[in-house]
Amino acid sequence: MTEAAAPKRRRGRPPAPRLLPPPAVEAFLDMLVAERGAAANTREAYGRDLLDLNRFLEGRGGAVDRAVTEDLRAYLGDLARREGAKGGRTAARTAARRLSAMRQFYRFLVSEGRRQDDPSAALDSPALGRPLPKLLSETEVEGLIGAISGLFADPERLAEGLRLLALLETLYGGGLRVSELVGLPLSALGRDGRVLIVRGKGDKERLVPLSEPARDAIVAYLPHRGVFFVKGRDRGFLFPSRTARGGCLTRQRFGQLLKDLAVEAGIEPSRVSPHVLRHAFATHLLSHGADLRSVQTMLGHADIATTQIYTHVLGDRLQSLVASAHPLAKARRP
After folding, report:
1. Fewest C-beta in 10 Å: which of 22, 190, 230, 238?
2. Catalytic-labelled residue, pool 163, 278, 279, 284
3. Catalytic residue among 201, 224, 253, 259
4. What is the bridge-based pairing of β-strands 205-209 and 195-199?
5. Other Cβ atoms closer than 10 A to 279
6. DSSP string, 105-117
7. Catalytic annotation on 284?
8. Which segments of 112-250 does DSSP mark as H helices, in order?
9. Is 301 a catalytic residue?
10. 310 has catalytic annotation
């Protein structure tokens, strides 16, 4: 009688231990959430950046809360070498983000009395030119919307088509961030359906007026919303999903749907994303005469300087306006 063979051990690397942030970093991250209303993704991003800094400093026998300016310069030099293969602008963006995290962290330590000095104060920001946003023309956006009609021809995909149309019209008609869009609760719709109550960054609410096409698309979609409930349960999302763990459509899935729609519309899929449609919303509004402050409010930008990137579209229109409306321009006409 033979002994039972011992079960074979599964091969593969053991999971890497999860690194916990030092207490000073943990306190800083908690402050971001408690006092500034930072989202979970923001907290996680700052945590990753400061953990990377701490790993480097520990390799030099130091720690993130005891660093001096030369330590931080050495870290940024090491980061530049690691990121160099990604190209100048990408490396500069990474360095700028890490430097921003460091500055906020050390200012926090000073304000809390944990340090007397700010070692990041003497560091220079990397040169970072600001690119123009990727953009779709009004004709291309109309083409995307028109391509949804193919879904309406199939009765089994009617609900999917109506939901996609409502998503696209709401995004392009309101300029929402994709995370704001897919996570909209049903209660975000105003009583008359003319505005959305959007909860954006920092947990701040803003009112976003809905265009007539967006209102019509939502009204047409709502009777079919139950098709997307998880196990028949209404969890209160405007755009629920049967398969998503969170109960609402995910950002990734919506992005995939837009790529598929771009193919149907004959547009290069790499040019289409939810954020590109947000850019299109702002740019097309400005090109038709909207003022910058109104666009800032609808986009939910805290600083108007962020909105000013879209003014690149105004060059020709402003030149035409000066030529037609300025009194000296009129006086000099032959």
Report:
1. 190
2. 278
3. 201
4. antiparallel
5. 19
6. HHHHHHHTTS-SS
7. no
8. 138-147, 149-152, 158-174, 178-182, 212-221
9. yes
10. yes
